[in-house]
Amino acid sequence: MTNLPNLLTLIRIFLVPLLVAALVQQNFRLYWGDRLLVANDFFALIVFLAAALTDLLDGYLARRWKQVTTVGTLLDPVADKLLISAALISLVEIRLLPGWLVILIISREFAVSGLRSIAAAEGYTIRAGELGKSKMILQVAGVTLVLLSIRWPRLHPLALWTMWGVVAFGLASAVDYFRKFWRKVDMSIKLRRRHELILLERQKRRLQKAGRRTELGNEREEEPIRHSR
Q1: Is residue 161 part of a domain?
Q2: Helix, strand or coil for residue 95?
């Protein structure tokens, strides 16, 4: 049964297509009669901040209500990466961010996801560290500033500097993830290989003992034949 923290994570994933549609469709508008309620930039900002809020709530509620699950631990970073990647790619599409900067950020996300997958296959779950959490906060702030710069262009330089901060924290947290990965998974592989070598050595000894028993049995069978002669 899906608990509330996992449900919030799923809601964040379902908000991703709505965010992309609001950013890419420049003529998107919400009207109440003849009155304009919200334009596409503000609507995209509302959707993005709502999705980011679910990221704060699901982790807090999971820890407070002791509903931390393996599915939630693995699904939460996937939802975060989908949200941020969709927002950044959409901002490149409408030419508010340089493509190479977004490639750096998304490449880091794929690299960390790969490390997490390998660690999960080895039976380990690498949780987000303080650097990763700081990077996520900067990402939310950076995307928010870029969205606000659509209406207020003076904010665009500040938004770019914030995105550079995202790159710096992203690289630092990637190093931290790799350190955790190397310590846990590398030790696990070494212990597993050592265990396999021990099993092979035991099997070899058993075969040697079985061979000696066979030789002794053959010698005992040959002794009566020699005495009869």
Answers
A1: yes
A2: coil
